[in-house]
Amino acid sequence: MIKITLVASAISMMFAVSVQAKVSEAEAAKLGDTLTPIGAEKAGNADGSIPPWEGGITAPPASYEAGMHHPNPYPDDKVLYTITKENLAEHQELLTPGQIALFNTYPDSFKMSVYPTRRSASFPQVAYDWTKTNATRAELVDGGNGLKNAAIGTPFPIPANGLEVIWNHLTRYRGQALTRKAGQAAPTANGSYTYIGLDEALLLPYNNSNADPAVLEETNILFKFKQKVTQPARLAGTALLVHETMDQIKTPRQAWTYNTGQRRVRRAPNVAYDAPGTAADGLRTTDDYDMFNGSPNRYNWTLVGKKELLIPYNTYELHSDKLAYDDILKAGHINPEYVRYEKHRVWVVEANLKEGISHIYKKRVFYIDEDSWQVSVADMYDNRDQLYRVAMAHGLNYYELPAHWSTLEVFHDLNSKRYIAIGLDNQEAMYNFGVELKDNAFSASALRKEGRR
Questions:
Q1: Which conformational region is residue 416 in: left (phi greater than 0), alpha (psi within -120 to 50 degrees), or beta?
Q2: Is the Cβ–Cβ distance between 329 and 187 less than 8 Å?
Q3: How many CB atoms lie within 10 A of CB 46?
Q4: Rounded to whole angstroms, how far apart are CA atoms 407 and 313?
Q5: Which residues in the chain show pLDDT less than 70?
Q6: SS3 state at 382
Q7: pLDDT digits over 431-451, tens only?
Q8: Is the pTM value of this prediction over 0.90?
Q9: β-pairing verdict for 403-413 and 112-114
Q10: What is the pLDDT of residues 375-409, one digit of tens each?
Q11: On the CB side of 376, how many CA atoms lie within 13 Å of its CA?
Q12: What's the CA gap between 347 and 72, in Å, rounded?
């Protein structure tokens, strides 16, 4: 049974949202005082197992150089305790139903090694400054399916409802642009897998240092994303382009695909919601990517409250370039020897499918890290109200921004007893957050050229 502490006003906010009132100057003054600059509780918890936030990681380890995989800043930390099926009952109040289900599904192999909590999340000063500005003027529009009067920072650092929390996740700071080589794999029941190599580029106008909320509202672009499959040979060249809008009621997401067999770029209006993800063996939906993406308009969103939870955090060992993919990818689940869990406070947001709307997930429960607005765990339920899938984002701080983001996302299908791991980068060149990307690189014609290379 999960114990939830209801946040102030949450009980009265369990309804579909229209335009929301902005917080007062007095409320916004708490940011950087009793709250962190992006809205987390600055203080630790009562028993000290969650320490105060003291700025997060503000400088990388001495051994770090730009372009490297990020070395562990806490190499001397020891495991506090390990949860297995045998002692699960002692710790289940700190777990989600989905995490508990993993112990029950893989009783002989799944475990969680719990380390000291390190509140490492940090962001640039510009994101903190804009967050304070956003707090007093950001608004949800179109029933909560759009955003205006915000840029760069967290739009709703003192959230009043579930939609505001999920928009904080959708807009969390990840730099202005990046390119990355990463991959994914969906092991079969015996652990065998095919590595799917991906080249990706992301342009984030919302985070541009010259971002203007009025211009963002006019252009209505939150980000532009391009993805090309590089391996295996049978899939190489397949490409995807997405223009994500800030108001998807005003202008829905625009998407295009390039198919190597047809050598044509086609509009792809179905790249959304519960359409199958790219080369995912049916193990995730399109809107599972990044733990949740796209328009929230198919669900009613409830801010349940906050709780203390064990979530993957500071998973630098899992990110290490010393590991081969065979070291990580095992039958049933990734290798637990390389996963670090910590106790953190999370926002709990429940999404229930609207009447008369279709989606393979009838209910989703998101657990969002208060220090970063990253969805860290998600439990998904099917149309029989049965737990269907559980996802976990393995996060760390990227020193060069800085920003907290996942290095690997793992989606477990409890029915097939399979999973897909997305973001495998151990044997790839590290992300380039300093790249300059032109807007015209995210056009349909550019996608055609990309696919033919």
A1: alpha
A2: yes
A3: 7
A4: 10
A5: 1-21, 451-453
A6: coil
A7: 999 999 999 999 998 898 776
A8: yes
A9: unpaired
A10: 999 999 999 999 999 999 999 999 999 999 999 99
A11: 31
A12: 26
